Input
Amino acid sequence: LELVFTAHPTEAKSDLEIILLQQISQTLRSKEGHKGSELLRITKRLMSHINPNTIKPTVLEEVDRNLVYFDYIYNVIPKVRKELKKSLEKYFPSVKITSRPVVKYSSWVGGDRDGHPGVTSEVHYKTAKRHHNQAIENHITSLEDLETSASNSTEKLKIKSIINKLESRLLDPNKRQNSYNKSSELIEDLKNLELTSETSKSMVEDLITNVEAFGFHLAQIDTREHSKKHEEALSD
Output
């Protein structure tokens, strides 16, 4: 399943609006009961932030707003795969999940040049870099949690070595040393980790699922060009 982000500047919510709406949702779903004062506080903050006369965001601001969603999506993908596997085992035991990833993402934001003068080659490059850095940072955060759960110093050192190789990818390409060239190399290292704790093993499986889904690119940037550009190229 490939899901595509297609939000336009007039539709995109700011990152603060997204966070506040999430807080309202979490408060409503809380098993402790609805906290009226908390809901009122968050709602007032949301209403004070919403301004219909706000200037339209730039393309890169729109990219950043979409990236906020991936902070939530990242933690959901492993759960989706587990639920799918569980359902298949229950209702269709002969069917196995063979394709990986099960879910992946694409985005028009920062790559759609069809009539959008703001999407330049520089903006496209910066969009790809933002995607890359967030994917790497999300993987590093998961690895740091895994390092904390590891049972002994040997396991922790192996995980730390993987973290170091990932952190190198956040450097300028000319300054990288002992870094991963592609996400499949990271997956191979994760599969070769020998861990004692069942909790740690489960965390590794979840991380592999996320690396398969998001790689080092987070979401594929769909590049569309205005038809006039294609006509000019064909004419030449």
Remarks:
- The mean pLDDT is 88.
- Helices lie at 15-29, 36-49, 59-91, 121-149, 153-167, 183-191, 198-214, 227-235.
- Strands lie at 2-5, 104-107, 220-221.
- The two ends are 38 Å apart (CA to CA).
